[in-house]
Amino acid sequence: MPKRTMSNANGQAASEGALWHVLVCGGTLQEWSQASVGEWKLQLDTFVDSLHESGARWLTVCPYAGPSGSEDEIATIVLAACGGQRNDNRISFIAKDGLVVVVDLCANGRERFANALNRIKGESGSTRQEKEVSEEILRAAMLPPGFVDPDLILVFGSPTQIPPSLMWELSYSELVFLDVSWRKCNVEHVQMAINDFQRRDRRFGGVDS
């Protein structure tokens, strides 16, 4: 049976086995703030090394949950670990092989959604009131510097609960749960999730007819 395809945000054909964008979700903001610069560098290097041969072009790391308030403190630690630049609550840098890594400090999916709408309104001015906010416009506000929705979401947590930090990302992504601490993640964990993803029959939010 031929692989199903759909167009991603770049208009490129994304087959059910293609892996462009991986999102790793794990740890609370409190746990993130307790990790040292060295621990952050080790963790990010682990994620990057795990995707070395996958063909992925974007990696996003976000917290599982947590109350806001410590983002500035965490941002300072992450920037010291990886360099890069900060834009609001998103820190991005380019890792080896050109992999774009984004550390998203927002732990509330609804807040991330609202922030994207506010950015659209701010960029468009009052004219936005007369135009419909399309899925493409909203995607462009939520994903930069990435350009495609996550293909694979790796959740470090119990499979009995969806992370409150996610909302938009759940629409077209495949979820793999690992009930281990994100700080104990190793290369084998991520590669196991990729292998799981590649065996799946992707429906991109649809259902079998």
Give a written overview of the molecule.
This protein is of the alpha/beta class. Helix content is 33%, strand content 19%. It has helices spanning 29-34, 37-50, 71-82, 109-124, 135-142, 187-198, and strands at residues 5-7, 13-15, 21-26, 58-62, 85-87, 90-94, 100-104, 152-156, 174-178. Strands 5-6-7-4-3-8-9 form a seven-stranded mixed β-sheet, covered by helices on one side. Strands 1-2 form a two-stranded antiparallel ribbon.
Mean pLDDT: 82
Question: Low-confidence parts, pLDDT < 50 over ≥5 residues?
Answer: 1-14, 205-209
End-to-end distance: 15 Å
Q: What is the tally of beta strands?
A: 9
Radius of gyration: 17 Å
Tell me the series of helices and strands, N- to C-terminal: EEEHHEHEEEHHEEH
The helix tally amounts to: 6
Q: DSSP strand (E) fraction?
A: 15-25%
The main sheet orders its strands as 5-6-7-4-3-8-9
Task: Sum up the structure in keywords.
209 residues; alpha/beta; seven-stranded mixed sheet; two-stranded antiparallel sheet; 6 helices; 19% strand; disordered C terminus
